Automatic annotation (TrEMBL):
This is Acetyl-CoA C-acyltransferase. Its EC number is 2.3.1.16. GO terms for molecular function: acetyl-CoA C-acyltransferase activity. The active site is at C89 (acyl-thioester intermediate), H342 (proton acceptor), C372 (proton acceptor). Pfam families: Thiolase_C (PF02803), Thiolase_N (PF00108). Residues 5-254 form the Thiolase N-terminal domain. Residues 264-384 form the Thiolase C-terminal domain. InterPro entries: Thiolase, Thiolase-like, Thiolase_C, Thiolase_CS, Thiolase_N. PANTHER family: ACETYL-COA C-ACYLTRANSFERASE, BLR7806 PROTEIN. Keywords: Acyltransferase, Transferase.
Length: 386
């Protein structure tokens, strides 16, 4: 079977809710990433066969064929098609997997896989809220779903609490993980580890080049002082991912395109896995998904040099570490969504961008990325740095 290669990656620096990216239309954020990928690769924009855009809250400025709008706002010719997909938090990781499948099938040679989410301008759940306000139907969960699972309240926050209790974690452990995320992200920023990843954006008369959510001065006391989301729970805003605006993307190409266009491969995609499980606990699926991906690739956890496990809530990567017995020093080495932010549909491509750069910076070979996703789904992608 033909291989799929990642040749370029790019991301915006994360913006806090109401922060540096508040005045950026999300289609323009996507366009900036597209243009950066084209510029970095040096290819003719007309060589792009397709653009696959992950976005979770598809409403308002992120509605009406949003992926196509990102293309129309970019320097790509209007002849380049696009599609918008929603696999919840894994949307742009799935975009990468769809792009790889297109290349590996031989149907396309150059595909941009990316994600965009402006959580300031299109708030989380706002598309559901508009539906409810209009008094149309029962919302996304039908009577059949409610009867099957005994609820219509499929809550990621509750799922995170359930995971913490199931795997025996307490708040102090969750907070300690959150503090380490900020420490690693601050160190990575100070060392320039993110410099080659980030697309500089014009904001307020200056340039936005640093992730706004990182708190270099965070302490165990300051994180521990944040109010819990539930009175008897363990999850707080400090040990959960931050609301964030941002965009990220990768260019995926075939071996034929490498030769024809004179491109340099940065990584080869080794394995593509997606699984689904319990939609109530919801966020635990990366555990069995990782097992399946490693088995399909004929690898063990010790074969993987670096891991990117999305920090939707601290309980998720902690449970993943406990289950896989992976080396914590190899996990989210430059911090994660607790510090860097979680721009929903853009996070999968952001993690992949960071993973590719981190492997090269450390001279390592294999990387594994996984995301917990609404509805109890998880994607796993294994890559080999080249």
């Amino acid at each position: 079977m033909p291989h799929a290669y990642i040749v370029e990656t790019a991301r915006t620096a994360g913006g806090r809710r109401g922060g540096a990216l508040r005045d950026w239309h999300p289609a323009d954020l996507g366009a900036e990433v597209i243009d950066a990928l084209i510029a970095r690769s040096g290819i003719d924009p007309a060589a792009v066969d397709d653009v696959i855009v992950g976005c979770v809250t598809q409403g308002g400025e992120q509605a009406f064929a949003f992926g196509r709008n990102c293309v129309l706002a970019s320097t790509l010719p209007q002849s380049v098609p696009a599609v918008t997909i929603d696999r919840q938090c894994g949307s742009s990781q799935q975009a990468v997997q769809f792009a790889a499948q297109a290349v590996m099938s031989g149907t396309q040679d150059v595909v941009i896989a990316m994600g965009v989410e402006s959580m300031t301008r299109v708030p989380m759940f706002s598309n559901v809220a508009l539906h409810a306000k209009a008094g149309l139907g029962e919302g996304p969960f039908s009577d059949r779903i409610a009867a099957r699972y005994g609820t219509r309240d499929f809550s990621q926050f509750r799922g995170a609490e359930m995971i913490a209790r199931k795997h025996g974690f307490d708040r102090a452990q969750l907070d300690a993980f959150a503090l380490e995320s900020h420490r690693r992200a601050a160190a990575a920023t100070a060392s320039g580890a993110f410099d080659d990843e980030i697309v500089s954006l014009a904001v307020d008369g200056g340039r936005h080049t640093r992730d706004e959510g990182i708190r270099p001065d965070a302490t165990a006391d300051s994180i521990g002082a944040v109010r819990l989301l539930e009175e008897d729970g363990m999850i707080s805003a400090a040990n959960a991912s931050q609301i964030c605006d941002g965009a990220a993307g990768v260019m995926v190409v075939s071996g034929a395109a490498l030769k024809r266009l004179g491109l340099r491969p940065r990584a080869r995609i080794v394995n593509l896995t997606v699984t689904a499980g319990d939609p109530v606990i919801m966020l635990e699926e990366p555990l069995p998904a990782t097992d399946r991906a490693l088995a399909r690739a004929g690898m063990s956890i010790d074969d993987i040099d670096l891991f990117e496990v999305n920090e939707a809530f601290a309980s998720v990567p902690l449970a993943w570490l406990k289950h896989t017995r992976a080396d914590p020093a190899r996990l989210n080495v430059n911090g994660g969504a607790i510090a860097l932010g979680h721009p929903l549909g853009a996070s999968g491509a952001r993690l992949m961008t960071t993973l590719v750069h981190a492997l090269h910076a450390r001279g390592k070979r294999y990387g594994l990325q996984t995301m917990c996703e609404g509805g109890g789904i998880a994607n796993v992608t294994i890559i080999e740095a080249l």
